[in-house]
Amino acid sequence: MYPLIHHLSRRTALFHLVAALCLAGGPLLWAEPSAQNVVRVACLGDSIVYGSQLANREQNNWPVVLGRMLGAGWDVRNFGVSGATLLKKGNLPYANQKAYARALAEKPDVVVISLGTNDSKRPTASVTNAVNNWQYKAEFAADYKEMIAAFQATNPAVKVYVCIPVPAYPGRWGINDTTIREEISPLIREVAHDTGATVIDLYTPLSGKRELFPDTVHPNVAGARLVAAAVYRALTGKAAPAEAP
User: Fold this and answer.
1) Is 83 helix (H, G, I), strand (E, B) or coil?
2) Under 8 Å between Cβ of 119 and 86
3) Closest to 242 in 3D by CA, of 221, 226, 224, 223
4) Where are the beta strands (DSSP E) in 197-239?
5) Which one of 41, 86, 126, 209 is CB 3.0 to 4.6 Å from 76, fit for a cystine?
6) Which parts of 130-183 fold into alpha helices (H)?
7) Chain mean position to CA 34
8) pTM score, whole prediction
9) Number of H helices, E strands in the chain
C-alpha cells in the first residue's frame, strides 16, 4: 500500500508542476498520457500541410510526422486543403472548406495555422494567367484575426500558433516568394502581436534549401520533416528528436 501511495503522490506533484508551467505562459509540456489529458492539435493549411507531391503522403505529411515526434499524450490531426487561401476573397477560401468546419468542431487545445502561400498568387510577366489573390491584401490581417477568433470562441483556452510560410523557389502558378517574404510574413507577425498568437517561422529553416522543393513550392519528405521539427520546437520548447519514432 505504501509504494502505491508514494507513486500517486509523485503523479500528483507532476500534474501540479505541468499546470503551473502552462499557466505561466510557457510552451505546452508533455504530460503522462491518460484519457483526460491528451492534447488535441489541429493543423490547418494548404497543400503543404496536406502533403501534396509527397511520396507516401499518408505517412510523410508534416502533421503526421509531428504526431510521431510528440508521441503519447498528443493527438495531431491534418486539416490541410490543397490550394486554400487565408483570404476570404481568394480563389479557394479555407473558411469555406469542410475541413475548417471539422477543425472547429474538434474544439482543439492547440491550433497551428499555416496559410498564406496561395494568397501570394498574382499575375506576373512570366505567369500572366494566374489568379490575383493578392489584390485583396488589405483584408488579409482582418480575415486572419477572424479565423483565430473562431477557434477562441469554440475553446477559450486554445493556444494558437501562426506560421510564416515556407519559401518558394521562386514559385509556380502565380505563387510569389517576394510577396511571401516581404508582405505576407510581416502581416502574420502583426496578427500574432494583436491576437496573442505565437509565431512559428517556417521560412528561415527552409531558406537556402532549394533542393528540398522539387516543384519550387512543395517541400519533399526531408523538407516536411524540417517543418515538423520547427512546429515541435514551438509546441514543446525542445529540439525535435533526431528521427521520428
Assistant:
1) coil
2) yes
3) 226
4) 198-201
5) 41
6) 140-154, 177-179
7) 25
8) 0.85
9) 10, 5
Identify the band that residue 13 occupies on the pLDDT scale cut at 50, 70 and 90: very low
Name the phi and psi angles at 191, rounded to 5: -60, -45
Helix, strand, coil share of the chain (percent; to 5): 50, 15, 40
For residues 18 and 10, what is the distance between their CA atoms, to the nearest angstrom?
12
pLDDT of 19: 43
3-state secondary structure at position 162:
strand
Over residues 84-102, the mean pLDDT reads 98
What pLDDT score was predicted for residue 243? 57
Tens digit of each residue's pLDDT (9 = 90 or more) over 181-190: 999 999 999 9
207-243 pLDDT, tens digit per residue, is 999 999 999 999 999 999 999 999 999 999 999 997 5
CA distance 219 to 94: 21
Distance between CA 50 and CA 25 in Å, rounded?
30
Q: Which amino acid is at 13?
A: A
Which letter does DSSP use for residue 167 in this model? P
Give the Cα separation of 125 and 91 in Å (integer): 20
Residue 46 gets which letter from DSSP? S
Determine the residue type at 118.
Answer: N
From CA 12, how far away is CA 177, in angstroms rounded?
50
Residues 114 and 46 sit within 8 Å (Cβ to Cβ):
yes
Record the cell numbers describing residue 144, joined without a space.
Answer: 486572419
Q: Which residues contact 173 (CB under 8 A, 6 or more apart)?
A: 121, 127, 130, 217
